[in-house]
Amino acid sequence: MNSNLVSRFVKVVVINETNGSTLKGITNDDKSLLNGHNILELNLTENANVDAILQAPRVSLSSLISLNLSQCNLNSIPDAFKDLTINELNLSHNSLNKVPGCIIDGLKSLQVIDVSHNQLTYFQEPMCVKKLRILHVNNNKLINIPEWVLKLHAFNLEELNYSFNDLTSLEESRFHQVPTYELKNLIIKNCSIRNSDVVHLKNIKSLRFLDLSNENDNKLFNSITNCDELLNKPRWDDRLKILCLNYLGISDLPNEIALLVSLEELFVSKNELLWLPESIVTLQNLRLLDLSFNKLVCLPQHFYKIQTLQILILAHNSLSSFIYSYPPNLKKLDLYDNLLESYNDMCLGDIQIDLEMNYIDTLILNEKYQSLKKSLRVNLNEIRCDGSKELVNEYSESESSASTAYSSTEEKECINKTYEDKFEEYWSSDGTVDLCKNGCTLSDNEWTGCEEKSNVNVKKKVVRRYPSWIFQDVDVIN
C-alpha cells in the first residue's frame, strides 16, 4: 500500500491552545493540518475558538473517530455534530449544565463518552446506548446513577465512573437479572454509598475493578465501615482483580478477603487497621498491597508466603518489628514513618526500600540503600524527610519536666529563700539537734497504727457568748 495514502488517513491532529475567539488566533500551520486530510483523531483541548477551527475551509471530519473538546469552556456544542460517526467524545472539564442534544438524539456510533467535571444534573438515555462501552460522568451534580444504566439498557457497558455525585439508592438496579452483563470497571468514590447498597454491588458478576474509596471528607462521604457484608460471597469473588477501599474508616479486614482468589491489587490506605487476618497470606495472585496510613502494629507470621507480592506499602503505621523473611518476589518495600528499631538487611538484596523516620540510624547505611530509597520515591506524591526519630526515655522526660517546672531565676530564688527560712535548723553547742525548736518530736518517727490527716480547710464552730441580761424581760430589769 502507498505510504502517502496511509499517512493521509491515519492522522492525529493536536492543536495547542489558541488566543482569541476568531479564526485569526489559529496559525497557518493549524489550518494546514486541518485542510485536505481525512482526520481520525482531533484534539482541541483548551481552545476557546472550537467553532472557528471546525469551520475552517476544506476540513474533512467524515473519517473522524475521536474528538477531544475538553477544557474549552463550552456550555453547549452544535447539534450538527449528531451526524458524525465518531466512536469517542471527550467533553470533560467544561461548563455543561445538560447533556448536549447531539449525544441524546445522534452520534449513534459512540462507544466512549466523557462528560466528567461539568454541572450535569440529569443524563437521559442516549441513542448510542447499545454500543456504549465507557461512560465517565464523575464530578457532576447528579443525584443517582442514570436509570438506563441501572436497568442494563447499556448491556455492553464495561466501565462506569460515577465518583463525586450523589447516589440516592441502588434498589432499582437489575445487575442480578442479566448474567452476561459486561460491566468490568466500577469507580464510585465519594457517592454517599451506605452499607445497604453493598448487596446490590455484590451482584455484578463480571466486575474486575471496584473502587469504593473516599478521597476527602465532603458531604458525599462513602460510609462502608464494615467489610463483612461486602466480602460475604459476592458474585465477583473469583474474578475481581483490583479492590480499592481507601479512607473508609475500616478497622478490621475479615477472613473472607482470602476468597478473592483472583485479587492482584488491594488498596486499604487511610483506615484504622491494627492487624491483618492470617488468611491474607493465601492470596496467591496478589502483586500490590497498600496499607499506608493505618495503625498496624504487626503483620501475619507467615506473610512471606505471598509468593507473588511485588509491592508492599506500609508507610505511616506503628510497626515496631518486621517479618524476618520477605516475600521472594518483593521489589518495593515502603516502611517510612513507623517505629522500627532494626530490620533484616540480609534479605533485602535489591529491594527498593524506605526506612526513614523510624528509630533506625539510616545515616550509617551504605550508598546502595540511598539509591534504592531514591528509586522508590520517584513517583510519590508526598514530601518526605530523611533521618530517624528520637527515641525518648519516658523516665528522663518526666525528670526533665519536673526540674524545669520553675524556669524563672527569680522564682527559684524565692522558693529557696522561703524553704531556708521556714526549715532553719537549730543546733546545740554539743552538735545535737534540738528537735523541739525545729518543730519535731521523737513521736514523728513512730507508727501508731493509724494515720491522722489534718485538713486545713475544716471549719471550726465558733460560740459567741452574750451577757445574761440580754435574755431578761424589760420589766424584770426595771
From TrEMBL:
Superkingdom of the source species: Eukaryota
Family matches, as PROSITE patterns: LRR (PS51450)
Any matching Pfam family: LRR_1
Tagged with keyword Endoplasmic reticulum: no
SMART domains reported in the protein's UniProt record: LRR_BAC, LRR_TYP
UniProt cross-references to InterPro entries, sorted A to Z: Leu-rich_rpt, Leu-rich_rpt_typical-subtyp, LRR_dom_sf, LRR_domain-containing
Signal peptide, first to last residue: none
TM ranges: none
Database matches in PANTHER family: PTHR48051, RAS SUPPRESSOR PROTEIN 1
Name of the protein: Uncharacterized protein
